[in-house]
Write a structure and sequence with these properties.
The structure is a homodimer.
Chain A lengths: L3 H9 L3 H17 L5 H8 L3 H13 L3 E4 L2 E4 L1 H17 L2 H12 L3 E5 L7 H18 L5 E4 L3 H9 L10 E4 L12 H12 L2 E2 L10 H9 L1 H11 L3 E5 L1 E2 H7 L4 H9 L2 E5 L2 E4 L4 E4 L16 E6 L5 H7 L6 E6 H14 L13
Parallel strand pairs in A: 3-13, 4-5, 4-7, 5-6, 7-12, 12-13
Antiparallel strand pairs in A: 1-2, 8-9, 9-10, 10-11
Chain A binds a DNA duplex through helix 3 and helix 4.
Chain lengths: 358, 358
DNA sequence: ACCGGGGGGGACTTTTTTTGACCCAATGGG
DNA sequence: CCCATTGGGTCAAAAAAAGTCCCCCCCGGT
């Protein structure tokens, strides 16, 4: 009954989405990167300076932003608006119904689609992080162990997580050992930052991610390592990003030969060391210490997957789904692309579409 | 929680109400008086022909209207839209909160405010009629007697009442004998039309409205008259318009002397022969056959008052209110004016403001 | 059969708004 | 102290909107 209000609006005022979206994106951007200047904003949003000036004028007159020498700041009303109007924007863009369709297609517990396209607008990443952070907080209960993986998406979650105490006795651990990457995007770093925000304990796994089996066995014999491993395996909530197979292979420094093998096996998606083909089967595994896929069936109550960008669509479909424990947070671009994948393959809505070459 | 959505919209897109209202009024107009031409519409809505043309273009592109040689017709989607979006428009214009404030000020059971100003746009009358018709239908129960008065407002209710059977055994009667007016606006005529729409019985009172006491006594002795009178007195629902004292006095052909007396007594409102001062007291009564004010306290379950136009505001306040049985349907113009009356008199929100000279 | 009034659509000019491209003084961080 | 960046101002070009016609058509009454 109430979902039709937006349709009515779009019918009688078809220019509304354009106005609304433009202004919403602008205000959102201001909120995220204040103080910010006109020219910066204009180049970010891809509009002329003069146009932006008019828009800013409107927002200023409405008391949504303060314009000062030094830049443009959001007012408290502006911040409140951007938070409060998001569900509205979502339903106006059809994201609410998009969420429902994905819920049915992927058969997960919950889907959150964030407006925008991550590859075009970095703000979308933060917004995704904020959405995932909200979901994460809802999952936490006293005494739980939370495992987090690395990547920019998870880093964004840590960034956007409000700094207010979580439930009692939370312990945050990395899902796996560190990748040889920028420290900000390592699981360890993110675990620590999440724990900091939640004001909870954390334990780290200061180890390289990719190891030989002997090294692993040896390390497992260590008492301190064993302790942390037990902690990791007792995790009840898992927060992880999703990588495309190629990108992750490259990032791990895989050689040409290894990448060719992955391609031949049809790997499209990756989650903490596991490579999945389009049918959701594991085709390769980077040996390391940390959470194993098998553990997901056990204690894990919820896995929160965060990913965005059209190019991640296939990876997302490969990795997530068919698990009522899965909570998926993604951006509009990936969401629409996933829908395309399903539609182009099987109009009869079976899960697991084969990969589509782009 | 949800009432803030419109405020958000107005904040971030302050030009929205203008666009929306213009288009809503246009579409509503088309619905009510199709087929209709550009020029007619333009003069009605007070906009240039060219702008109207653009608006029509938008509505056409949205599939809300059909544009044919012969005029502009609403599509079924257009009709559905105009009906479905009305509550939205109301809350956007603040009419929903206006209704709540009037509810508190007048202490009636229910208030329905229709967007627009009756004196400027005749469509508002019809829309008011439609709203009142809906209220009326909700009041009816099997076997009830419904009394209706005369006037343009009640005539509009009869017009807009959908022609679908009402509850079983409804009987429609005029609240009073006929006024010496245009037949379309007489209580008898309206009673018959309402009954026709509801597919129910009706009984009429073919008598002049203003009579001497002897004549009344004589008529009451008549068996057939007595029957109808009993029926009228057993009415459980009453639908009536509200007149300003001056207008009604003039319409009844009162002389200068009589009108001066009414003025001196402070009469501002009129309902089927009773004149009320601003405090809601009866100051004059036109002797006639039909419903007496005293009857209202008895069997009457609901009285539906319909009135519109800024000039009716004082009359409405004088006549209606302080009765939990009262259902009020009015237009935006009258509603806002009533609020002004209360505010200008007693900020402490006591009922019954003294009359304000205009 | 035949007007004639009101219907939509097209075309043209005028006006207003929008937009792009500057420059300027001020401010704040390095 | 300096330089980069800020918001504000201005002005001309461009585009969009709006006002004003005229034309043709259809329908209905004569």
């Amino acid at each position: 009954m109430f979902g039709h209000q937006e349709d009515y609006l779009k019918l009688i005022a078809p220019e509304l989405p354009e106005i609304l979206l433009r202004r919403y994106r602008l205000l959102r951007r201001i909120c995220f990167s204040a103080p910010v200047g006109r020219r910066t904003l204009a180049s970010c949003l891809g509009v002329g300076e003069r146009v932006l000036r008019r828009e800013i004028g409107v927002l200023r007159d409405q008391g949504l932003v303060r314009v000062e020498p030094g830049g443009i700041y959001p007012s408290s009303a502006g911040r409140a608006l951007v938070a409060g109007i998001t569900p509205y924007i979502k339903s106006l863009l059809g994201l609410t119904s998009l969420e429902e369709r994905l819920l049915g297609l992927l058969k997960v517990q919950r889907v959150t689609v964030v407006p925008g396209e991550l590859e075009e607008d970095e703000v979308v990443l933060w917004e995704m992080g904020r959405a995932a952070a909200r979901v994460l907080r809802e999952c936490l209960a006293p005494g739980m162990v939370l495992a987090v993986s690395g990547g920019t998406s998870c880093a964004a979650v840590a960034d956007m997580l409000p700094a207010s105490p979580g439930p009692e006795g939370i312990t945050v651990v990395p899902a796996r050992g560190g990748l040889g990457e920028i420290v900000d995007y390592q699981a360890n770093t993110i675990a620590a930052r999440v724990a900091d925000k939640l004001q909870s304990r954390y334990r780290l796994l200061h180890l390289p991610d990719s190891l030989s089996q002997e090294a692993i066995d040896m390390l497992l014999a260590e008492k301190r390592i064993k302790e942390i491993m037990d902690l990791i395996h007792s995790a009840e909530v898992l927060l992880h990003g999703i990588g495309t197979a190629e990108e992750m292979a490259t990032r791990r420094g895989a050689g040409e030969e290894e990448r060719r093998r992955l391609r031949e096996k049809g790997a499209v998606g990756e989650v903490f060391g596991y490579f999945f083909n389009a049918s959701g089967e594991v085709v390769e595994r980077v040996p390391s210490l940390g959470l194993y896929l098998e553990d997901l069936g056990g204690r894990i109550k919820n896995t929160i997957a965060v990913a965005g960008g059209r190019k991640k669509a296939e990876a997302i479909v490969a990795v997530v789904g068919n698990h009522p424990r899965d909570l998926l947070v993604l951006d509009e671009g990936a969401a629409r692309r996933i829908l395309e994948l399903f539609e182009s393959r099987e109009p009869s809505s079976g899960r697991r579409p084969a990969p589509v070459s782009r």
